[in-house]
């Protein structure tokens, strides 16, 4: 039986078990960054196929890529770095990943055991650009080309560089790793037939529907249609929908549009933007233009009622790190 035929085959591979990573955890965080070994690369390719991505990841063997990633990790709050020493096995640098990055969990001993750690893969070709250019590209990716353009600002002009981009991207991906075993949201690898009330973060804005996890589709009467980030052209949302979608987002409990895509990125986006804006005091706003005219400025909802419950959960989680 092939990996693609057996839904649990990928989870049984050695790269998903703690035994494989013992030597990695003996290294400092800076020593866990580099090109993936063949077994990890094969796993990433099989996982892409399973998720419907056409891209075939390839390893990046240039050691110079590790330095800016290590620098970005060192710029994060010390409490985050300390927790990562025990939970982040490695950061692998690839190309053709199909997105900016991906997080994978590691089991104690097979898919029926506990998840205790994780590893990351970052796409160098996608990530190696200034912060605001990367963030704008990402937020434009769900939509067809057209007159409506998105400009997302996550860095001031003097900080609009690769370092700021990597810092934000790592905050998001690291959130996935930090959430492992915390019971804030269901496991992304496990059966989604769960009691949603068991997961306090996911219980806000999500529901169990037909045995799966689904997002509420309206908030305060405002529709919030589904979008797909990094979508192929045939799956992109119409350009004309951008303003309407962001209007719906402003009435929802989600901090960003990317947070609406699934419960796991909901948590990761909330954690990343909370640390980015409230702890590191960095800017974040989405500016939407119709041609040259600014039509809407979307800002984070910290301090506002619509996000209060999630903000409280993230603040408490951060304090516990």
Q: What's the total count of β strands?
A: 12
- Shape designation: globular
Low-confidence stretches: none
Specify the helix fraction band. Answer: 25-40%
N-to-C SSE string, H for helix and E for strand: HEHEHHEEEHHEHEEEEHHEEH
Please tell me how large the radius of gyration is: 19 Å
End-to-end Cα distance? 42 Å
Q: What structural category characterises the helix and strand content?
A: alpha+beta
Number of helical elements: 10
Task: Please give the largest β-sheet.
Answer: 5 strands, mixed
* Multimerization state: single chain
State mean pLDDT (0 to 100 scale): 92
Beta-strand fraction estimate = 15-25%
Task: Outline the structure in words.
- The protein has 321 residues and is an alpha+beta fold.
- The chain contains 10 helices and 12 strands.
- The protein has helices at 9-12, 38-51, 66-74, 78-87, 124-127, 131-140, 162-179, 242-249, 263-279, 308-320, and strands spanning 33-34, 58-59, 88-95, 101-107, 115-123, 148-153, 206-209, 212-215, 218-219, 222-223, 285-290, 293-299.
- A hairpin with a 2-residue loop joins strand 11 and strand 12 (293-299).
- Helix 3 (66-74) packs across helix 7 (162-179) and helix 9 packs across helix 10.
- The mean pLDDT is 92.
Task: Throw out a few tags for this protein.
321 residues, alpha+beta, five-stranded mixed β-sheet, three-stranded antiparallel β-sheet, 10 helices, 33% helix, globular
Short précis:
The protein is α+β, with helices and mostly antiparallel strands. The chain has helices at 9-12, 38-51, 66-74, 78-87, 124-127, 131-140, 162-179, 242-249, 263-279, 308-320, and strands at residues 33-34, 58-59, 88-95, 101-107, 115-123, 148-153, 206-209, 212-215, 218-219, 222-223, 285-290, 293-299.
């Amino acid at each position: 039986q092939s990996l693609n035929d057996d839904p649990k085959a990928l989870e049984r591979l050695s790269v998903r078990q703690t035994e494989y990573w013992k030597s990695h955890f003996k290294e400092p965080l800076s020593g866990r960054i580099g090109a993936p070994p063949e077994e990890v690369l094969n796993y990433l390719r099989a996982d892409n196929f399973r998720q419907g991505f056409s891209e075939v990841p390839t390893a990046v063997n240039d050691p110079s890529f590790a330095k800016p990633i290590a620098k970005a990790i060192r710029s994060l709050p010390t409490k985050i770095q300390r927790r990562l020493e025990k939970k982040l096995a490695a950061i692998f640098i690839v190309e053709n990943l199909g997105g900016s990055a991906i997080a994978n969990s590691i089991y104690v001993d097979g898919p029926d055991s506990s998840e205790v750690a994780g590893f990351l893969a970052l796409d160098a070709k996608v990530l190696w650009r200034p912060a605001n250019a990367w963030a704008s590209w990402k937020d434009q990716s769900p939509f067809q080309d057209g007159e409506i353009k998105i400009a997302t600002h996550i860095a001031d002009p003097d900080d609009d560089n690769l370092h700021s981009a990597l810092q934000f991207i790592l905050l998001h991906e690291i959130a996935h790793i930090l959430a492992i075993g915390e019971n804030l949201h269901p496991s992304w690898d496990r059966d989604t037939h769960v009691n949603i009330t068991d997961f306090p973060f996911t219980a806000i804005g999500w529901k169990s529907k037909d045995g799966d996890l689904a997002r509420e589709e309206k908030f305060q009467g405002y529709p919030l249609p589904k979008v797909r980030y990094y979508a192929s052209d045939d799956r992109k949302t119409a350009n004309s929908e951008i303003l309407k979608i962001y209007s719906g987002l402003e009435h929802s409990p989600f901090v960003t549009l990317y947070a609406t895509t699934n419960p796991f990125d909901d948590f990761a986006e909330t954690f990343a933007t909370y640390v980015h804006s409230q702890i590191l005091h960095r800017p974040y706003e989405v500016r939407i233009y119709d041609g040259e005219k600014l039509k809407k400025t979307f800002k984070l909802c910290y301090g506002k009622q619509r996000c209060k419950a999630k903000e409280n959960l993230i603040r408490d989680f951060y304090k516990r790190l």
